[in-house]
Structure formats: structure tokens, C-alpha cells
Amino acid sequence: MLTRVLLFLCLLASPQLAKHVDLPAPYSDDCILDHGTNLYDPKNAEAVPWFDVDLDKPASERFVEVAKAYKDNIHELIQVIKDLILPTHPDALELVDGFFGEMNKKIAQPYQDEIASIADAIDIPVGEIVMYNIFYEIFTVCTSVVAVDEKGKVWHSRNLDFGLFLGWDPLTHEWEVTSVLRKMIININWYRGGKILYKSNNFAGFVGIYNGMKQGAFSVTANERFVDKDQGGRTGIVKWLTGEMADAKWMTWLTRETMENCNTYEEAKEHLSNTEMLSPACIITRSWEQADSVTEITSRKDPWFILHTNYDPDVEPLYLDDRQTPGDNCMRKLGRKNVGFQGIYNVMSSRTTLNKLTTYTVLMQTESGAFETHLQGCPGECWPF
Questions:
Q1: C-alpha span between 349 and 71 (Å, rounded)
Q2: Are residues 41 and 122 in the same domain?
Q3: Which of 147, 238, 302, 372 could form an SS bridge with 363, CB 3.0 to 4.6 Å?
Q4: How confident is the model at residue 225 (pLDDT cuts 50, 70, 90)?
Q5: With bands split at pLDDT 50, 70 and 90, how would you rate the model's confidence at 87?
Q6: Where is average pLDDT lowest: 5-9, 227-231, 236-240, 338-342?
Q7: Number of structural domains in the chain
Q8: pLDDT at residue 162, rounded to an integer
Q9: pLDDT for position 360
Q10: Based on the domain organization, do 44 and 88 belong to the same domain?
Q11: ∠ CA 164-333-283 to the nearest 5 degrees?
Q12: Average pLDDT over all residues of the chain
């Protein structure tokens, strides 16, 4: 049924690729606020465990505890990827273990030693852990929201969607890689000098940062930008390997570097704005102070919030992947007076902001230091991306 719907939409809307197209029932956009539904329960965040990473320890020791705790899950993820690739590319495993294994020698410290230590801890070829750690540079889908409530507090959230075209299970109607990743979501307290430096959430075995929060300073979410194919993450990786972009930063490692080395919103914005990245990305950064945040978003139609997916503001989303229109509409229904973890979580839990690729929703409030990660899913008849 879903295949026929996709084909129908392609035929219907091919002359107007940049226009919003209402998806047919039962896949249509649905803001749960219209039904008076509240799915937010802070206790659900307790399902995602917390780990400590001490930056004062040698790089080779930092991720051993996490790796051992999720050994079976990491092996399962790698096996799912192998099962997807090997039937049509039987020599791919040799390429991964050899090529990506050698690639780790070119990766900057401390990431090189951290990745090698994860591979050693769970007895898996280092090339396979390298492949896992560069996934995000190649392709992902996500939605970030920053909103300012009536009291001037800034609230930051993000849905991370991953696993598009990486194995569709016809029995569960889920993406195979996405299903495995949901079991590998963790929170991390990053320590330096015996104190928490910042917080993030991660997939176990992944050493980069998708989102992070430094209490009293700023929060960050990194969204991949959909651009011309010759400007994407694959091109950046090739240029890095050939030395053409030898000093460019991997996106999730740049985010982590920013969290570790920048102490203010201004420092973070300056660093992110002036550092070359291998993959095109939109880094959403917000301080906890109203003035900075409002100044950043007043050019929008709705000056109290910004919802950003993977398309530049001046580019209309692809008609099959328009999370922007339903997301904006749902935020307007929420209203500024209802901005908070509950309200924003319900927006992020509405279709098609929520879809089959969604693994989690993270909620951050920098002033208070509140940081919650909620496991997500879109069971039943739900849009695949």
C-alpha cells in the first residue's frame, strides 16, 4: 500500500516539486494538539540511561564502559548493515575492514584513540566502528525547534531521524537500522576537572555529538543541510581523504569540540561560523538569554520560534519530505504561552515531524540545566520519513 501511495504522489506532484502536498490518509499530517492530546510524561525520560565520560582520562579509556554495556547492540547494528550490503556487494566487508581501518589512522585525536578503544573493548574490527561513526556525515534527517516563552526563557528541542533506505522490515513496518539504534540511545555527562562540563545524548559507540547543552551558557543541535549532491557529506569525505579538505572538521566532532572549548554563546557562534566542515550543516545554537535568542529569530514570520529541518530557509522542502509546514502549523497552534517541555514535545510527537525514522526527542533548557531524552517511534500507519 505504501509503495503505491509513494508512486501516486510522485506522479501527482512531479510538476510542482517544491510545493507542499497533503499526504493521503492515513499518512496525513496530524497535530495532536487538535485532539487535546498530551503525550509528554517526564518519567519516560528515565528510560534513557546516563553515563559519565571523564575528559581528564586518556582517550583510550573514556568510552570503554559504554562500549561494554552495549556490546551486543553494537554488534547487532553492524550485522544489520552487513546483511543489507553483502548480498549485492560481497566484497564490501573487505573494503570496510581494510579501507575504514586505515582511515582511522588519519582521524584526529582524541577521536582516533576513542574509536580504537571501542573496537578493542567489544572485539570488532576498527574499520566497522569508523564506518558507524561517519554515518551522520553521509545522510540523516532531523528537525530542530527553538522557542521563547512569554517570560523570555528559551527552550530547545530536536527530533533525530536516521536510517532512511537502510532496510525496510515488511513485517514490523519499520526501518531496520532505525529500530536497532533506538535500543542504543544514551545520555552523557561530560566531566572535566571533576565537574560536569556539558550534557549530550548519543548512540552507544558513537563519539561525536548531535546535540549538547552547557548549563547557563548555550545549547546546540546539528542538522544536516540538503544541498546539491556534489556538495554533500560524501564529497566532503573524499576531499578529506585526498587532502583537499585536510583541516576541515567532521560535523559531530565540531559540535563536541564547541561544547568542550567554548564557554559562551558568542564564542560558540564564532567558532561554528568560522570553521570549515566536511558536511554541509545548519548548526542551531541558542543562549539562555532572551535578548540573544530573540534577535536571532526576529526575521522569521513567527518571531517567538524557529523550526528548522534540513532545508535552507529560502528553499522549499521536497513535497514528499515537508516536515516544515506541519511543524510550523503545529507550533502556531501551541502558541507562545504554552511553550515548555510539554508543549514542544507534543509538537515533536505530531506527524510528520514524527515519522518512521524518528529515534528520539531531546528537550533542553539551558538556564535551568534541564535535559531530557525521550525514546520515540511512530507505530502503525505512519509516513516513512
A1: 30
A2: no
A3: 372
A4: low
A5: confident
A6: 5-9
A7: 2
A8: 84
A9: 96
A10: no
A11: 45
A12: 81
Separation of alpha carbons 283 and 115, rounded Å = 24
Reply yes or no on whether 142 is catalytic.
Answer: yes
> How many whole angstroms separate alpha carbon 274 and alpha carbon 288?
22
* Confidence category of residue 287, pLDDT binned at 50, 70, 90: low
Range of the domain at 79: 63-133
Give me the mean pLDDT over the 313-333 stretch: 78
**Same-domain check for residues 272 and 318:** yes
Question: Is residue 351 pLDDT above 90, yes or no?
Answer: no
Rounded to an integer, the average pLDDT of 32-37 is: 95
For residue 146, tell me if it sits in a domain. Answer: yes
The answer on 91 and 238 residing in a single domain is no
Percent of the chain with pLDDT over 90: 47
Longest CA span, the chain = 59
Of the residues 31, 142, 262, 382, which is catalytic? 142
Render the burial of 264-284: b for 16+ CB within 10 Å, e for the rest: ebeebbebbeeeebbbbbbbb
Residue 313's SS3 state is coil
C-alpha closest to that of 93 among 131, 120, 54: 131
State how far the Cα of 26 lies from the Cα of 13, in Å rounded to an integer: 18
Q: How confident is the model at residue 81 (pLDDT cuts 50, 70, 90)?
A: confident
- Domain membership of residue 385 (yes or no) is no
The one-letter amino acid at 347: V
Cell of 246: 585536510
Residue 24 lies in a domain: yes
Q: Which amino acid is residue 308, in one-letter code?
A: H
Do residue 306 and residue 161 come from a single domain? yes
**Backbone CA torsion sign across 52, 57, 58, 61:** negative
For helices 251-261 and 265-273, what crossing angle results, to 10°? Answer: 150
* Inter-axis angle of helices 324-334 and 341-348, nearest 10: 150
- Confidence check: pLDDT of 14 > 60: no
Cα separation, 300 vs 224, in Å, equals 20
Q: Do 215 and 90 share a structural domain?
A: no
Whether 277 maps to a domain, the answer reads yes
Query: What spatial distance separates the first Cα and last Cα of the chain, rounded to whole Å?
Result: 16
Cα separation, 346 vs 336, in Å, equals 14
Quick one: cell of 364? 533542553
350-368 core/surface letters (b: 16 or more CB in 10 A; e: else)? bbbbbbbbbbbbbbbbbbe
